[in-house]
C-alpha cells in the first residue's frame, strides 16, 4: 500500500494500492474483453494487461443485448455483403456516421462472426448447420446472427472463456473514478474497490475506456439501474477528450410496460427479434397501426420511426391503460416461439403471460446513446494513450443505430483497438510514467474521494439521481423542443448546486457509488441537453417539435469540448464521404421488404 503526506494541508491522508500495468482496460463487457484478447493474440504478455469491471466478472451490460449481432455472412440471403451492410448503417444513421468507422465494422464482421463460432459461441443454426441469420429493423437482408434471444449473454460467455484460456488478469467490482493525465497524456486511472472500500491507483502506459453509454440517465430505460450511467464519456471528457453526437439517444420501440409486470420490469427490453420473427404491433382499438406510418417496412422500419409511431398512438388516445401498445406474435406456432425466443417466452411465462396465445404490452424505452467520445480510426482519443471503444465511442451510428450493430461495434473496434495498441507497445519507446507525477495526481483525487466519503450534507445522491432521470425524460425524450431544453438546463444547474451538499457513506456504501454516478451524470446530461438545444432540426432519433424537418445544413456533427474556464464549448464538424464501393451500394437502393415475412 502507498500512503502520503497531506495534500495541500488536507486530511486525512489517502492510502491506496498501486498497480503497474502496460494496458488498463476499463470495462469488462464485450468491447473490453475483445480488446484484451486481441492484445494477447498480438503478442502482448497477459501479465501486462489488466481488465477492470465495475461489477462481477461476466455480469456486464453486454448480457442484456439479446436479439443478435450483425455481419454480412449471407447464410440466408447470399446477395448480402459488407458494402450493403455499410449502406444500411449509413442510411439508418441519416448520414451523420463516420463512413470509415462504419466500414471498419462491416468489413470485419463476417470474419469475426466465424471466429466467434470457432471459439464456441452457441449460434442458432440453419437447416444446413451454418450460422442462422434473422431480419432486424431497416436491414435490407437477413444479416443478424443470433443465439436464440440471449445473444449478448452467449457472446460474453464466449469472450470470458477465451480470455481465461489466455490467462488475462482481471479485477471485478472496481469503480474507476478518474483517468489521470498530464500534458495531454494518459498516465493511468484511480478508483475504489466497492467490496472493501480500498482506494486503487493503476499506473498504465495505455488505458482503454470500454465503460458503456448513458441511457440509464432516463427514467424509463432498458439497462440495469447502475449501468450505462455515463461513466465512459464523462471519464474521457474530464481527461481532456472531446464528445460528439450526444443529442442522439435511441428509444427502443418495445420496452416492457404495464402493471401486471411490476415496477422492476418497467422499461426492460422486449428484443427486436420478436418483430424480426414476425411480431405485430396493435393499438388499443385493435388496429395494426404501422400500416399508417410505414406500409412497406411495417414493424421493421427504423427504430426511431416505430418508437415515434407508438408514442403518437398513445398521445392520441389509442394506447393501453398503461401508456403502451400491444406486441403480438401469437400467430406463430408455439414451438417456433419457444425455439427462436426462449428467454422472452420464459420471462413472460413467469409473469403470467403466454406469448403463444396473447400479446405483451410495450412502450418506447431509452436504449442506446449514439454519441460518445471522439476517436480516430484506431479508437484513440485526443488524449495520448487513451482509447475509447464500444458504446463509449462515437462515430459508427450517426443519428440512429441499426439494430444488431451494437454488439458488432464492440467486437470490431475491440479488435481494432487491440491491434493498434499492440503495435504502439512494440514500436514506441515511450518515456516511463514518473513516480512523482503519477502519485501527486493520484493523491490529489483520492483526497477528494476521502472527503466525499465523509460528507454529512442534506441531499441523498440516489434521490438526486432519480430527479435527474426525470429531468431527462421530461426535456430530452422522444420529442424535444427548444423551450423545454432550456428549462432542462436550468433544472440541471439547480441539481448541480444541490449536489454540492451530499450525505455520503463510506466507500462500500450505495450512497458513495451513487455520488460518483451523479458526478458523471451531471456532465453527460449537460452534454445531451446542450447538443439537443444546438441542433435546430429533426434527424434520426433527435426530433424537435419546433423544428420538425431535416435540414441539409445540419448534416454536421456537434462536438463538445471543455473551454478555458471549464465550461462546455460546442462546435460542428463536417461528415466524411463513403468509399466508392459503399456509394455503389447506396446508389443501388437496397431496402428491406417486410412483406417477405408474411
Task: Give a concise summary.
The chain has helices at residues 30-41, 82-92, 99-118, 151-165, 231-239, 273-276, 290-293, 303-315, 334-340, 342-350, 405-427, 435-453, 461-475, 482-498, 510-534, 580-588, and strands at 16-26, 49-52, 69-70, 133-134, 144-145, 170-171, 174-182, 185-193, 199-209, 243-244, 249-256, 280-282, 325-328, 360-369, 372-373, 386-388, 556-562, 568-574. The protein is an alpha+beta fold and 598 residues long. It has three domains: 16-66 and 78-113 and 159-249 and 368-427, FAD/NAD(P)-binding domain (3-Layer(bba) Sandwich), CATH 3.50.50; 252-364, Alpha-Beta Complex (Flavocytochrome C3, Chain A, domain 1), CATH 3.90.700; 443-562, Methane Monooxygenase Hydroxylase, Chain G, domain 1 (Up-down Bundle).
